[in-house]
Amino acid sequence: MIRRGAPFAFFAFLAFLAGVLLIGCPGLKNAPLDAGAEGEGGADTDAGGDDASAFPETGFTVLRHMPEAGALRAVSVIGTEQVYLGGDDGVLLEKAGADFQEVVLGPGVDVTGVWSSGPTEALAVATLKNTNKGPIFRRTGGLWTQIGTAPHGLRCVWGIEKMRYAGGNDGVIYSGPVNDPLGNGFQLPLPANVADTLFAPIIYSLTGTATNAVMAAADYDSYLLYDGTMWHLYQDPIDRTRSYRALWSFAGPAPDFYQGANYFGLWHFSSQTAPVFQLNEEKDQPANLNRWIWGIWGPSPGKVIAVGDAGRIMTYDKTSGKVTIQPSPTGKNLYAIGGTSLDDIWIVGEEQLVLHGHLSF
């Protein structure tokens, strides 16, 4: 078990007063899609060469694809007209009718997480290229401002009720109320049997069902659960190769977490005393060691959608217990998913890929 740390004395808010510039960008119209690229995990994601017609018909339309651009890694969807997309090289897009506005964050800012509580508040976190620093941005009153910079690169941001959380490199998790969202800090030491690689352990994702039930995906063989008093560390005592990247939860009286991992893994956590239930894991091919589920979202507690490397789109229906690999319009790596319903789903991925459409279970 890991006790919650005292506030980080070295965390310094910069509190910029100037707003971040907004500029218009072309509407996200249907775009041709070339298949085939090498993903972050090193897996070859070529699934049909350059012929987009090799892919099956799906409910998704390719709205954006820029082969020379970096990845889109985060999406937050609050309503059909409130959509935020973030990614490499300072890309932060917000929906403006049929088009998107581009928020100019400056050079070297890789947006890794976006979250919104509703029409009046949104948060974005990032890492600065070639440094281990994490700028934090807030949108209020239609204007984005930088409210601080953490001394560790940040990978994710999330909130519930009146609390806000962000996590990132070196096992850091920041938290605080709305008016001081990242004022307190906790740092996970490198867990036993985890390789001491650059920035390890990395907090890739945060979610929760209440302020006393918050989960963090903490990289190789590790995830954390905060019970309102302490952070508890969970590790698989047998399989040391499993690595967690994505989380999704449904607010309610009991923990209800879905976890995404390598081997195209999808897991369900429902209690501190119950075992984690494996929904999907594919170890039949050695390459799947480096193929992750990066994003999970669901319209209801009984239905979730997971996306990941090599264009993976996968659904889970709790009623039937069935996991289905859905037809995908791409072989590109997919990093995040959000939506308002099964008829309004947004998926983003490498090469600034944006998919919008619907799914049936």
- Strand sequence of the main sheet, in spatial order? 1-20-19-17-16
In terms of quaternary structure, the protein is single chain
Structural class: mainly beta
Poorly predicted segments: 1-19, 29-50
Tally of DSSP β-strands: 31
Q: Sheet with the most strands?
A: 5 strands, antiparallel
Distance between the termini: 39 Å
CATH topology: Methylamine Dehydrogenase, Chain H
CATH superfamily: YVTN repeat-like/Quinoprotein amine dehydrogenase
Describe the structure in your own words.
This protein is mostly beta strands and 361 residues long. It has a single domain, classed as 7 Propeller (Methylamine Dehydrogenase, Chain H). The protein has strands at 2-3, 21-25, 60-64, 72-79, 82-87, 91-96, 99-104, 109-118, 121-128, 134-140, 143-150, 154-160, 163-168, 172-177, 184-187, 205-210, 213-217, 219-220, 223-226, 230-234, 243-249, 257-261, 265-269, 277-280, 293-300, 303-308, 313-317, 322-325, 334-341, 344-349, 353-357. It has a five-stranded antiparallel sheet with strand order 1-20-19-17-16, with no helix packed on it. The protein starts with a strand and ends with a strand. The model is unreliable at 1-19 and 29-50 (pLDDT under 50).
